[in-house]
């Protein structure tokens, strides 16, 4: 039998048309994500304490508005995070259209962003403040430790290499698809700019013939027909596509039955312009039958 409070949360949330939880590392981009959701028509609530979630959802039910709701939760609610995790799991078991989005970034990026904005970290009060730089390092490490369980229950977006406009677009793409079944995400990237931390699978295609060394193809991308024609003629490319596609097709049903909300497949090449882009475009077409497929080009979208 479910605890009364969790059952109450689930029953109230079931009457909400769409519920998006936005969380993540301080400096990861939560404010940008919330602005994107607000622009998309969501009713946004910033830093709602988890213990107030049942009361908020009850009010939503009683109002009868059935509006789309986005709630931001950050590490300032650290003491209530275990309770929030219980709410998330119970709502999903009840079939609630809940999507939890976790905004993350690598360590160096978080340090740089705090240095640029000169804003204090919310956990700075809990660490030794005699050395400002060291205090920030310790605060980031502590925050990541506290939020790891919540990250594991969420759709992760690594904002390290993303411009604000990119992040807004990626968030809008996520909430356009239904939260009731698994969303398959194909993402191209450049190894020289780092591997996306939000990837579930990473495939390295730098061993494939590179259009970059063709002077006419160099300024183009994997979305351009001349590059596609060149890569389609390469036996190695066809073999790589076949093997990656077979792997995903084999395991996709298992991930779907595991009640996951997303699966991110990252394809990387040297510059993130030709080979990885072509493979992402092609795989997205191959798996269009899945219904909920997103494609991202980290380096191209940044232009």
UniProtKB/TrEMBL annotation:
InterPro entries in the record: P-loop_NTPase, RapZ-like, RapZ-like_N, RapZ_C
UniProt keyword Nucleotide-binding present: yes
Amino-acid positions noted as binding GTP in the UniProt annotation, renumbered to this chain: 74-77
Residues in RapZ C-terminal domain copies: 183-300
Domain RapZ-like N-terminal: 18-174
Coiled-coil segments: none
Binding-site residues for ATP, renumbered to this chain: 24-31
Top-level taxon of the source organism: Bacteria
Keywords noted in UniProt: ATP-binding, GTP-binding, Nucleotide-binding
Presence of keyword Nucleotide-binding: yes
NCBIfam families: PRK05416.1
Protein name: UPF0042 nucleotide-binding protein
